[in-house]
UniProtKB/TrEMBL annotation, chain A:
Enzyme Commission code(s) on record: 6.3.5.7
Name the UniProt record assigns to this protein: Glutamyl-tRNA(Gln) amidotransferase subunit A
Database matches in NCBIfam families: gatA
InterPro entries associated with the record: Amidase (IPR000120), Amidase_CS (IPR020556), Amidase_dom (IPR023631), AS_sf (IPR036928), GatA (IPR004412)
Residue stretches making up the Amidase domain: 26-474
GO terms for cellular component: glutamyl-tRNA(Gln) amidotransferase complex
Catalytic activity: L-glutamyl-tRNA(Gln) + L-glutamine + ATP + H2O = L-glutaminyl-tRNA(Gln) + L-glutamate + ADP + phosphate + H(+)
Subunit comment: Heterotrimer of A, B and C subunits.
Keywords: ATP-binding, Ligase, Nucleotide-binding, Protein biosynthesis, Transferase
SUPFAM superfamilies: Amidase signature (AS) enzymes (SSF75304)
Family: Belongs to the amidase family. GatA subfamily.
Provenance organism: Pedococcus cremeus
Gene name in the database record: gatA
Nucleotide-binding as UniProt keyword: yes
Any one of the GO BP annotations: translation
From TrEMBL, chain B:
Lineage, top ranks: Bacteria, Bacillati, Actinomycetota, Actinomycetes, Micrococcales
Catalytic function, reaction form: L-glutamyl-tRNA(Gln) + L-glutamine + ATP + H2O = L-glutaminyl-tRNA(Gln) + L-glutamate + ADP + phosphate + H(+); L-aspartyl-tRNA(Asn) + L-glutamine + ATP + H2O = L-asparaginyl-tRNA(Asn) + L-glutamate + ADP + phosphate + 2 H(+)
E.C. designation(s): 6.3.5.-
Entry function: Allows the formation of correctly charged Asn-tRNA(Asn) or Gln-tRNA(Gln) through the transamidation of misacylated Asp-tRNA(Asn) or Glu-tRNA(Gln) in organisms which lack either or both of asparaginyl-tRNA or glutaminyl-tRNA synthetases. The reaction takes place in the presence of glutamine and ATP through an activated phospho-Asp-tRNA(Asn) or phospho-Glu-tRNA(Gln).
Swiss-Prot/TrEMBL GO biological process terms: glutaminyl-tRNAGln biosynthesis via transamidation; translation
HAMAP family in the cross-refs: GatB (MF_00121)
The protein's name in its UniProt record: Aspartyl/glutamyl-tRNA(Asn/Gln) amidotransferase subunit B
Family affiliation: Belongs to the GatB/GatE family. GatB subfamily.
GO molecular function: asparaginyl-tRNA synthase (glutamine-hydrolyzing) activity; ATP binding; glutaminyl-tRNA synthase (glutamine-hydrolyzing) activity; transferase activity
Record gene name: gatB
Residue ranges annotated for the Asn/Gln amidotransferase domain, each copy included: 366-513
Signal peptide coordinates: none
Source organism of this protein record: Pedococcus cremeus
Main EC class the enzyme belongs to: ligase
Cross-referenced NCBIfam families: gatB, PRK05477.1-2, PRK05477.1-3, PRK05477.1-4
Amino acid sequence: MSTDIIRSSAAEIADALARREVSSVEVTSAHLDRIAAVDGDVHAFLHVDAEGALAAARAVDDRRAAGEELHVMAGVPIAVKDVMATKGLPTTCGSKILEGWIPPYDATLVSRLRAAGMPILGKTNMDEFAMGSSTEHSAYGPTRNPWDLERIPGGSGGGSSAAVAAFEAPLAIGTDTGGSIRQPAAVTGTVGTKPTYGGVSRYGLVALASSLDQAGPCSRTVLDAALLHSVIGGHDPMDSTSIDAPAPPVVEAARRGDVKGMRIGVVKELGGEGYQPGVRARFEESVQLLVDAGAEVVEVSCPSFDFALAAYYLILPSEASSNLAKFDAMRYGLRVLPEGVDDPSAEQVMAATRDAGFGDEVKRRIILGTYALSSGYYDAYYGQAQKVRTLISRDFSAAFDKVDVLVSPTAPTTAFRLGEKLDDPMAMYLNDIATIPANLAGVPGMSLPSGVAEEDGLPTGIQILAPATEDARLYRVGAVLEKLLVDQWGGPLLATAPELTAKGA
Amino acid sequence: MSTATTEPVLSYDEALEKFDPVMGLEVHVELNTKTKMFCGCATEFGAEPNTQVCPVCLGLPGALPVVNEKAVESAIRIGLALNCEIAEWCRFARKNYFYPDMPKNFQTSQYDEPIAFNGWLDVEIPAASGDGTEVFRVEIERAHMEEDTGKSLHVGGSTGRIHGAEYSLVDYNRAGIPLIEIVTKPLRGAGERAPEVAKAYVATLRDLLRALHVSDVRMEQGSLRCDANLSLRAKAADGQAQDDVPLGTRTETKNVNSLRSVERAVRYEICRQAAILDGGDKVTQETRHWHEDTGVTTSGREKSDAEDYRYFPEPDLVPVAPARETVDELRTTLPEPPAQRRKRLQADWGYSDLEMRDVVNAGAVELIELSVEAGATPAGARKWWTGELARRANAEGKGVDEFGVTPEHVAELDRTVKDGRLNDSMARQVLDGVIAGEGSPVEVADARGLELVQDDDALEAAVDKVIEANPDVAEKVRSGKVQAAGALIGQVMKEMKGQADAGKARQIILSRLGVG
Ligand SMILES: [Zn+2]
């Protein structure tokens, strides 16, 4: 393993731990030190649990010393997006309305991390309730992109991707409702997978849009993503939308990495105009590398994708307006009393709390969703959006009849500057134009680095999409492409990122 | 807001002369599954507040529901017993509205895809002629699954409702308990029998649900709740109801928590709405609360058409698609239909139509069945359930099964009378003791020292004393007016402080007076 623990991949750390070259306490401490050094600038974390992480690390080291058979990832630390319920650890979803809430239970995937012996370093920053593409909508201040601290790290899971990109954690958990794992991965030069809908339990994931949300891995390598994917994936009886089948063989696929004879479709509608030249250039080079590696590449048209963004911004707010109704000050979280009211009613307290506790973007979407579900408008908005959703699924089915995977740029641009799109919701929403179709259809998608755009020197990402439950294909293709690109670059892309100056937090 | 003012009412007869009532009954049944609708929490009634809760039924962020398969089975069985079609594929929906006792601020319910729909239930009411019964078919619109809400307790204030309360407490033990809501189609044509039909429907439904063993169906505990919708429409000049007249504005009366209340509440609303319409005013579409004590309904929140629950399919749950084989299998588990069952039992027990009617009206069919199983004579069981207990139930506005008296108690009571240990008046005292919680009938009789005096000497002495004291009456009896002996028997019983066998006393009196 490399001399610098924090720059090692999760797979390398896991191997070193298994060979007892390093202890989990050492690995965990190194990451906690890094967080202390750089997170003042990056602000990837909302909460750091040094004590808990070290205790978990010690427990793993003790078990290993006792000769116990351990999970392959035991002792590898991880950061968890603040949208996952963690027993005993604050869970705010980036919102003031949940300030101080400590869940009494663990999300299923958190239980699985703990069961595997992975120390949880802390909770990562995010756009409030995962609504956003820049992490600027966090009520606790934005996360900054490690490549350029004046730029956004993507969103909503900017905290998780930035933590991984800044070497504050080898792995992180993200959630992806319309691209919140993949777009941050693209703009931070990291890897992120949105598994098939139902592939990873949603139990304990504070819902934004139930039919779209999916948790998945954030990492620096394709193999690392696969390793984490296999820890958190698989059936959960607590989530009735969970797929009742074993987790797909993603680690095997990532190790095998082979595209010979594979048919790869370039989605006509996800590229071209509106995509930054550097993003397009890196994408085209990546596609050429896949051809060189023996894949057959064809162009595929998915005409309904043009309506994906519109449908998404009806379905998401509709579900969100209902999912977020529970934040009412009655049982947990923030409680604000209305000003100038002597004897406020429950409804007045709810209204005052929701007014004070939710940010503008959350309110915007609650209002949109409430409107779209209203009687008299339901058919025209929510109903129509569901029809578009069906058409998008059909486009995917038709495409996957012809090809094994689809590819596109992950995001139309590289990381933009903080504040640049904050007052223009439409411009912000357009960041997810290429990632949203996968959520609407429930198919899996991965983003991995494709290089840097020459015009701004910032990372770009390529997206791979596969049919539902065929997550392994993402890793097969991703691993090949990653190897070819890293060979071409002469090392991992993140090695070229500027050094973060370590100043004590 | 509720006010205590009494609203004007028309007399029932006058109301029915002018208007024709149309009813719609919504019955909520709490299922008796071991666990809740969407989580593994226990459902036991009466547990300490907030001890049967978990992240799911508390609606904590991140928690997800999973459908209780047993509840779906119960729903299908109820649907089948109500002669409904069973959906091949249906979904849950979210009913969105804010209320503190609803943890998620939406209720997971069913909307336009109920599990069961298009059924009927025949109910019997006494024939208008006074002879036998007539059958009224109640059409069932739908039966759907949903979850119960928590229970709010509003402390302080006079109304016990949220307005004016100093603070409120919420118990979420009830949140998430499986409910089946059974909705009738509009019931027309019942005319002046509407209140009786309403009561008979709920009673029949209750018996059916009890026979299905899907619910405790205890109205006083809220495991069976009835909301009565009622509207009136004008009768034509000839006094006949007319079907082409549009339905009037309806009110929905809630909190109707006993069979007797169902009848009374419908009757009251008929009289109240009739007074409004008769005065040329309009009925307000609203929710009304029934008050058992005063026998009136008062206005609750106004229910305007603008109320919008923003229903949409529940994305956290997969659709329910019961296999046809499962439905067919469940069909084989259905109990005998109530009407058929009543006919069989009536024949078995040898009751007259009138007697059987009293039994049905008292809601005592199953209680008598169990009492007979426990060893009571059919006549004895009927006497206690439809006599003494029904009298008390009526007086106190309760059900006959709400006094803590079990079928086993009745069987024991019946036996002690038959065996000659107790007479009727002593048995009534024993029943008092059972109701007071003093134990089983034998235990009460022992504790209270109630036992017929078997000492013939004492009885003969008392008879002699009474004959001596009432020579006039004695003479009448001697001269053949045997029925006059009743007065003497009464005196003897008094002399014996009630602890004598009246039949034996009569025998001795008659023999002493030479007419035995
Ligand atoms: Zn529960």
